[in-house]
Amino acid sequence: MLAAFAMPHMRSNSVSGQVSPAGMNENIKGIHVRDFDVVIAGGGTAGVMAAVASARQGAKTALVESKGYPGGTVVEGGTALHSYFNLWKAFPGVEKRQVVRGLAQEIIDRLLVVGGTTGHADTTTRINYDDVCTAIDTELYKLKAFEMLSEAGVFICVNTLVAGAVLKGSKLEGVIVQSRLGRELFKARCFVDCTAYGDLSAYSGAEFIELNDHPVCNSMGIANVQIGKLYEFLKTNHAAGDIALDLRTGREGQIIRMGMEGTGSGNTLPPGFIDGIRQLGSGLITTTVHDNYLMFIKVNYKMDISPTNRDEVAKAELIIRQNQYKTLELFKQYLPGCENAFIARTSPSLNIRRGRTIICDYDITSEDVLEGRHFNDDIMVYGFHDEAPRLQIKNGGTYGIPYKALVVKNIENLLAAGMLITTNHSAHMSTRNTVCCMGQGQAAGTAAALCASKKCGARELNYSDLRKNLVNDGVYLEG
Ligand SMILES: Cc1cc2nc3c(=O)[nH]c(=O)nc-3n(C[C@H](O)[C@H](O)[C@H](O)COP(=O)(O)OP(=O)(O)OC[C@H]3O[C@@H](n4cnc5c(N)ncnc54)[C@H](O)[C@@H]3O)c2cc1C
Q1: pLDDT, tens digit, for every residue of 250-275?
Q2: 237-259: burial string, b at 16+ Cβ within 10 Å, e else
Q3: How far apart are CA 390 and CA 386, in angstroms?
Q4: Ligand 1: does its nearest atom lie under 6 Å from the Cβ of 65?
Q5: Is the CB of 247 under 6 A from ligand 1?
């Protein structure tokens, strides 16, 4: 089916037939059926925005999330939300612009009211990279996301797994979900896959590839840390980087982002610390909105095969948890301010930087991103790149995410949003970032609701209707 993508470390979909692998040979006769206009699979970074956008359009919308709360990787993996702004610092004379707005900004506004974010803070120590860091309190983010979904009237199914799909020809008829109520079939006119792993698309027989081009990770919160003492030690040892100052515990001008450049050259950190951190694959850039707390300390682990392999994932989950405690021990032993630190939070399961990549009608290329290309069906614009300053968008501008990049190939009524689009590694290093995923989610949810109300397939949707609705809902577009 996907012979053209036969490359090492890639696995193509071999699913055939009308029902997904999970549902294969399953007798769905007599299964309890619920009817919706739109079903969103996965209530993470993109899925929350998709569900809110769809429900606010008036569509009867269900959100199916396997964990007990919404949020996904934005509350479990990322150090901060990157980025609402263009990368302007490296380009003298270029104006700083907030290029992602809409629902992605609305949740920050809600978090600001309850002390759940630092707001948009500029980093002060690097002149040309990572210009704006928006850090969040992970627990308040979950709560505010939940409230937004509830207020919008979304039928919220947490602790519910998308387990299969039922198709009629190339049309997705329904999603098989599994909860303690048993198995149910959620029918809808249009569906959005926001599962990060692309479960719904894969179960629907869509083409995908698995590049396995990133380590997996579990990101922990370390508490009981004296941030000021730690910062002074790092500064003395020429190891403090990525500093951003903003609101922390309600006070302005506090350190809210700090990089320990333990693996870089030129610092005088103890060799035992540096060697240990290197061996464990621990990432040392963290953010916080609270005193005494490092919100995200990442422990990375490179799996030999894709993180869709259950048995290999089980091994990785154990190794990473062991390495988290080894990392904590290094902190306590070598870093002043961390003597009495403890692990206050871990992610419930390992975080992926990419699982399956779903083949859509258009695949955003590295040139599209770096040249700042726009399309005649842009649904958002974006200006951040994770590999800046090595890779940046031309002249500190933006590129467009076209609607066709969200339309799952060969399926009539399935959209995809989030880290699961974009096969090219360096293009993905831009499109996978949280704020880009949120924007894609809003657009996909809006489009799905419009398709449902107009009773059309994803490809028949009138772009000017979509654009008008997105702009009305605060999305920033150029041109
Ligand atoms: C370690 C790490 C660090 C990162 N650092 C940053 C950073 O500093 N800044 C930044 O901007 N970005 C960062 N990123 C990238 C960014 O966080 C992610 O790419 C983005 O959050 C992905 O959003 P998503 O909506 O695609 O997936 P997710 O937010 O992961 O959402 C997927 C949701 O689907 C649910 N789900 C999955 N399968 C099923 C199923 N079968 N049934 C029901 N529900 C299901 C999951 O539980 C989850 O809630 C980082 C990523 C990782 C992994």
Answers
A1: 888 888 888 876 555 678 889 999 89
A2: bebbbbbbbbbbeeeeebbbbbb
A3: 9
A4: yes
A5: no
